[in-house]
Amino acid sequence: MKAFYRASLGFCVGVLVAASWSHAASTKPDIVIVATGGTIAGAAKSETEAGYQAGAVAVDVLIDAVPQLKQLANVRGVQVASIGSQDMNDEVWIKLANTVNDLLASKDVDGVVITHGTDTMEETSYFLQLVVKSDKPVVLTGSMRPSTAMSADGPLNIYNAVAAAADPRAQGRGVLIAVNDDIHSAHDINKTHATDVETFSSHEPGLVGASLFGTQHWYRSPTEPHTKQSEFAGKVSGPLPRVDVIYAHAGMSPDLIDAAVAAGAKGLVIAGVGDGNMTTPALDAVKRAIAKGVVVVRSSRVGAGIVRRDVEIKDAEVGTVAAITLNPSKSRVLLKLALAKTDDAAKIQGLFDRY
Fold this sequence. Notes:
Blueprint: H1 2-26, E1 30-37, H2 59-64, E2 74-83, H3 90-104, E3 111-115, H4 121-131, E4 138-141, H5 154-166, E5 175-179, E6 182-185, E7 190-191, E8 200-201, E9 209-212, E10 215-218, E11 243-247, H6 255-262, E12 267-272, H7 280-291, E13 295-300, H8 315-318, E14 321-322, H9 328-339, H10 345-354
Helix pairs in contact: 4-9, 6-7
């Protein structure tokens, strides 16, 4: 009889433990990893070869390579693209944005992680910052070394990105980027080095937080309108207007500005020297472009700082828009979305002031 009671007690304890484990598993957040390719999914012929094929590894393989993700969340993958981010384009952006919005609208999804190449991550993340219509966490991550490399940085970046997306404190902070133990805002992140794993910087605004082996430390929340606060949030349809970036330099010719307008650009971003400046012939070409209905934004090639309005170039007289805090690549993103709504330079200046 005592043996029976001991066996029964053991069975009951086993059932309770199993039930407790099942409940704990079911209460883990549900995170979807949306893959677009990039170096993080790249493969090379050897662990020490610099050359590799971007986007060669499927999302399920990336997930299986980091089994520790199961400790953080219930994770599944969706493959949207398999490209190097140098080939990112409007069509993939729109597909990605609508996929993310559809996922976040589901009560079965608590957050999204996006694997992406680093070359254009700052542009894609800022695009999503403006068009995602949810407070749920969206976290991009990537790597500077392919998945086959010695000391690949991708697996820990994925782990930290999932941890950040699974953290309730990430909600409402806009689109984030988790790389190299840092957490950046999509509004502020810049790629600053061609090969270093510490390539990303947020300059003056600083980090949003840090993710150290899956433990988050949060420092701030972005102050600019984003995600649900953005007037661009929601389903995105194309095509988006063409916007070209023209790089300024000593002896800058007006030819490329005239050529871009002739090729059909609806907007131009001048990656100006210093405070968004350019040569006098280039500024004359800008005036010609504006006279033809093209909206021109003055940004700066230097990578940090504020491009102020009506200082050396009198924007109110010329008709140009000052980029304020946005670098050329992000100015292009905002201008594309703005031009889909209006071509009024004054109204677009208001958008650059706010966003």
